[in-house]
Each structure stands twice: as C-alpha cells, then as structure tokens.
Amino acid sequence: MDKHLEHKNKTKRISSLIKKYSLATKQGQLNFYHKSTNSTRPNNKQDQLIDISDLNEIIEINVKEKYVLVEPNVSMEKLVAATVKYNLIPPVVMEFPKITCGGAVNGASLESSSFKYGQLSDTCEEYEIILGNGKIIRASKKINSDLFYGISGSYGTLGFISLLKIKLLKAKKYVKLNYYPTGSFKETIELIKTKATENKNDYIDAIIYDKSHGVVMTGKNTDSENLPIKSYSKISEPWFHRRVKLITRRKQPQEELIPLADYCFRYDRGAYWMGEFAFPLLGVPDNKLTRFIFNDYAKTHKLFEALQTLNVSQNYFVQDIYLPFNKTLNSLKYNEQNEKIYPVWLCPIKATDKEQKLSPHYIKDKLLIDIGIYGQTNKYLLDPIKSNRKLEAFAKRNGGRKMLYAHAYYTENEFWSIYNKDWYNKLRIKYHAQNVFPDVWKKTHVSGHIKGTRWCGFFKYFFINPIKRLIQ
User: Fold this and answer.
1) 398: exposed, middle or buried (C-beta count within 10 Å: 0-12, 13-18, 19+)?
2) What DSSP line would sit under 246-314, residue for residue?
3) What is the CA angle 423-361-143, rounded to 5?
4) How does 246-269 read in b/e, with b if 16+ C-beta sit within 10 Å?
5) What is the pLDDT of residues 409-419, one digit of tens each?
6) d(Cα 67, Cα 90) in Å, to the nearest integer?
7) What is the number of alpha carbons within 13 Å of residue 342 lying toward its C-beta?
8) What's the DSSP call for residue 366?
9) CA distance 215 to 326
10) Digit-coded pLDDT (tens) for 111-132
C-alpha cells in the first residue's frame, strides 16, 4: 500500500477514536500510548489511552527540496539511518536513539547543534495535527501559526501531532570533534561563548567533571579521513564520557573523527553517565565484564524503562534547566554549593523569537545555556523533593525554565507564574483541547514521594517485559 494512503488510514482511525472520546466524556485525560517513554515522570494509570504505536513510518524523503515527512513515533535512529542514505541529515538530532520525532517536539528537545538551529521544533516546517474534536488540520508558519508555534513543549495537551515535515541538511561522513580541556567554571563558560560565536562549528557542548576539570567539545561535519576514527557504539569501546574524562586529564587539546551516526548517539551507551548507577541498583560490580554482559541494559531506552518499571526515578536527580547564558556561572556555583552532583552537561542553544510560549527556550536572550544535572548523592537522597524544589526556585530567580520531561514539583500557581495561562487556555479552547486532553501542569506535575517497586519491578523488567516484546 502507498505510504501516504496508509498514513491517511491510520489518522482516520485515531481521529475517530478522539472524536468518540470527546463526545463521551468531559474528563480531559486522554493520552497516547507509544510503547516507550523518555520521561522520568511516573505513568498516570488513570489516563485514557489511544494506541499510536503504529505511527512509526517515514512517509517521504524529498531529496530535491530537502525535507522528510515522518509519523510521530519515528525514532531518531530510524530517521538518521533513512536520511543518511541520501546524504541528508536533520539539523537537530536528539542524543538518544529511541527519542521520537513527535516526542522531541512536544518535549521541546535540543542537542549540540542547537546553538545554531534551536530545538527540533525550530527545524519543522509543518505539522498535521488531530484536534480534540477529531478534526485533522495542518499547522505551519502561515496556517494555524498560533498552534504551530504553541505546540512546542505542550506535551500533547493541545492536539495530537500525526505527521511532521522536518528540514534536512547535506550530511557528511564524519564529525571532526575537538576536545578543549578547561580548568575552571569561568574558563569553560568563556570558551563555550567564544566557540558559539566563531561561525565555523556545527556542534558545541561541554562536560564539567568537577570545579577544576571540564571540557568543551566542538564538532565540524567533514568527509576528510585525515585523523584517527573513533566509534562509541561498539561494545568493546568505553562509554563516551569516560573516555573524554581520561583523555582531557592531560590538559591538551585532542581531535578525532567520529562517524556521523555515532556522534549523534554518542551518549546512548551509559545514558550520559546515569548508567553508572545501574550496577549498584542491580547489585553487581562495575567492571569490563559486567559492562559487556549488561551492555544493552546500560543504553538509554533500557534505563528509562527501568526507572518506570521499578518506579525509582525520584531516587535520581535528573533535570535540565535553560538559563540566559550570563547565568551559567550562577548555575554551576549553585550545583557546587548545594547538590555537588557531577558530571554536569552544558549545551548552548539559540533562543526562540517565536510564540513558543511553553518552550524552555522562550527566554528573552540571544544565547541560552542548558545545564543538565544528572546523578545522585547522599545529600540529595535525604530529601529529593526539597532538592528539586530548590532548583525550580533557583531557575525562576535567574530567569530560567525547566524541561518538563523530568519531575516538576511546581504548585499550580507557581507554574502559571512562569507560563502564560491565558494564552494557553485560549489555544485549548480554540483547538478543542480543553475537555479532552489534560492541561500541561496536570500532565507534568509530580506530587509527593513516589513509592518504588524494586523486587516486583525487577521481575517485571527482566522477565515479564521481554516476554511481552517477544509476543508482540
């Protein structure tokens, strides 16, 4: 069957189900089942779910006009694998292979090319959206533009994105990655800003290992093969962050070539560094043998699955905060003085000047910084909610915004003091979302302590879930 026709049939099914729900209830709790998640929030078992897991096809790759039409459940790895065959690549590729295109827009995701291109939503040209009354519409810069911009960071609370049109760029075989070791917070910040304004880099991010050891990484797309080629997807290779830490201890700049797809997903094995916590959770030592045996379980999608199945996400501090760039030093000092969780990820991103009012990069500044704090300390475990609440207050004081894929503890009043409630509610009414989809505060809010299910969860994670996947 023609892919366009097949897609049309799928959207008709979902449209019919949404319409049926809208006529039958006023609960406002309709969500969508994707089969996987990249959120650390616990699932809401009271939600009514529509299965959209089959919307996972690439409908068209237009080589001449350089765009791709994708269904929302297409993963980053599938998108990259398909487009590079035509020597094309999306401008922004999320670092985890299983992140979906729809999830990246709804979740307002970024990556190391974001200092040039912003978020994935900034590279999209059009969406097909199914509204709360079941109507299927298009949204672009010219058609339903308020919804086109508003849907970034909305977490599926304004409508269901059933198709995305994403720009493509010419791809090259490798990323030439340069490592610049730094010895202080200030040195790291100044170097990021310098590299972001040089106009010759395609990628920039940084890792802070402690207050006297950091590294700024800049990448450039290339077909040249005049440097050593390093892969980070092979089971025999060290996790990316571990090798970077080792080679930058010498305080000498380094450079190497990384195959393009390997670069895009370089943080997958070890999930940045959160894989370090998987071994004590499983009660096994962390060494070469166990990393080999549990290699698949140390990948991002498996770790997210474990957080959800065991219900232990609150045991780990996992937050991304966007701040004006001139507040970067404040954020690093805050972490050093309060949580002291390392490593820390820094990623510069271009702010949006469009009406993406739910997006974390809707901040009045040209260049922003995303500070990613991922880890666990004994101090954090004493009161996880207090630590998260303190960071939320810090972000607000410094003109920042959180990514809401993670735990958000804002009260309803606190949340709407940051976001524009009147604007949001008008969009929900206009596009028939009000009585069908949960509002974004309710969707993202976490209240109180989460009770873990460790031993039952282990059994489900290692035995029940694999059997379900085999049956499916």
Assistant:
1) middle
2) HHHTT---EEEEEEHHHHHTTTTBTTTTGGGGHHHHHT---SHHHHHHTTGGGBHHHHHHHHHHHT-GG
3) 50
4) eebeeeeebeebbbbbbbbbbbbb
5) 999 999 999 99
6) 8
7) 18
8) S
9) 19
10) 999 999 999 999 999 999 999 9
Q: Find where tokens 């290692």 sit.
A: 462
**What single letter denotes the amino acid at residue 144?**
N
Q: Rounded to an integer, what distance in angstroms lies between the CA atom of residue 368 and that of residue 138?
A: 30
Higher pLDDT, 458 or 340: 340
**DSSP helix/strand/coil, 425:** helix
Helix axes 185-196, 328-337, angle to 10 degrees: 150
State the pLDDT at residue 42. Answer: 57
Q: Evaluate whether 68 touches 90 at the Cβ level (below 8 Å).
A: yes
Phi first, then psi, for residue 161 (nearest 5°) are: -75, 115
User: CA-CA distance, 355 to 178, in Å (whole number)?
Assistant: 35
Q: Return the structure tokens found at 316.
A: 């780990």
Is residue 187 a contact partner of residue 214, using CB atoms and an 8 Å limit?
A: yes
Residue 471 CA to its chain's centroid (Å) = 29
Structure tokens at 472: 């499916």
Model pTM?
0.90
